[in-house]
Design goal:
It is built from eight helices and ten strands. The chain is α+β, with helices and mostly antiparallel strands. The chain has two domains: 163 residues, Beta-Lactamase; 153 residues, Beta-Lactamase. The strands form two sheets. It has a five-stranded antiparallel β-sheet, sandwiched between helices. The longest helix has 27 residues. It starts with a helix and ends in a 7-residue tail after the last strand.
């Protein structure tokens, strides 16, 4: 199912080959020179190589983005990219996931991303880039990165993992291809029927998108799925994807929630609504009603506002993620007087 490749690939795409599993442990906080930088990247790949379950992959993504973890310390973090320069996992800013950075140059005009991809393809290597970190007045302007290419057996694609310091990717991105959008947008959702049409239509569109532009290019649409006022997000109406075990794979409102487990989350009345959403999705698709804090409403922080979510279950029939199940859905808030 292409939707899995588009939004779930990131959670399972970090795994290098198992031969790397015996390298020494070097953490982000231990990086002091080129040797330890290379060791850090190689160690991170070895940890990823030991993971074959997408739920464990979600936990690793959470660790990669957690300051003070083995994979993120100060301005030392990891970036995983496809061979054509699209960010799969950004350790510092999940909102950059899906961004095409192939054409990024540093302050000296060097095509550093292309150099990283080439170094990774050559068996691993260092690339110097020159950017001034505005948050660190004492950092050297030019710094080292280390890039290593590996094959992900779970995702079925080659990736390049880069470890290094601050990088300015604010100007990254390439124009997206003109792919027709679904008929029903997030702004059109006003009741159960339009909510169902929004979710079902988006799933069909995602399938078509991947078929037209391929897995890697389709990944760039993740930013569009989060764009406020865009086709897929309107205020509190957005898409979500998680596994049947409750690990968040994609969150249209808050990318930082991705990788967290929410299986036992309760609403304001103590209902484990995530479990209910999973149950109705696995039962053929359906609605769940619960109380949740509406960010557009003042004064419901203690009681919540009635919310209805619709979700479906999808199982991959592609070579990548063969047989893996995902829960895809969205929700909208209802007026108390019409809540049943």
């Amino acid at each position: 199912m292409p939707v899995l490749a588009l939004l779930g690939l990131a959670a399972s795409a970090l795994w290098a080959h198992p031969a790397a599993a015996q390298v020494p442990k070097v953490t982000a906080g231990q990086v002091t020179d080129r040797e330890t930088l290379q060791g850090f990247v190689t160690y991170a790949a070895s940890v990823a190589a030991s993971i074959t379950d997408i739920n464990q992959g979600s936990q690793l993504i959470q660790a990669v983005r957690t300051e003070g973890s083995d994979y993120n310390f100060g301005n030392m973090y990891l970036i995983f990219m496809t061979l054509d320069g699209q960010v799969f996992i950004h350790g510092e800013d999940p909102n950059l996931d899906g961004t095409n950075v192939f054409g990024v140059v540093d302050e000296d005009g060097n095509p550093v991303v292309q150099q990283m991809l080439a170094a990774g393809a050559a068996g691993g290597g260092f690339v110097e880039w020159c950017w001034d970190d505005p948050n660190d007045p004492n950092d050297p302007r030019c710094k080292d990165s280390y890039a290593l290419q590996h094959f992900s057996p779970v995702a079925g694609v080659d990736l390049v993992v880069v470890g290094g310091y601050y990088q300015d990717l604010s100007g990254a991105g390439q124009p997206l291809p003109p792919v027709p959008l679904p008929e029903i947008s997030a702004a059109d959702v006003v009741d159960r029927e339009t909510l169902r049409q929004f979710v079902d239509g988006t799933v069909v569109w995602l399938r078509d998108l991947v078929g037209q532009v391929g897995f890697e290019r389709a990944n760039e649409w993740k930013a569009l799925l989060r764009e406020e006022g865009g086709h897929f997000k309107s205020g509190p109406i957005y898409l979500f994807i998680f596994t049947p075990q409750g690990f968040v794979i994609f969150h249209g409102a808050d990318a930082w929630r991705e990788g967290r487990q929410v299986l036992d989350n309760t609403d304001f009345q103590g209902r484990m609504f995530v479990r209910d959403v999973i149950a109705v999705a696995q039962g053929g698709g359906g609605f769940v009603e619960y109380f949740w804090d509406d960010p557009t409403v003042q004064g419901d922080e203690d009681t919540g506002t009635p919310k209805v979510s619709y979700a479906v279950s999808l199982r991959s029939d592609l070579p990548v993620f063969q047989g893996v199940e995902f829960i895809v859905g969205a929700g909208f808030y209802r007026d108390q007087s019409t809540f049943l």
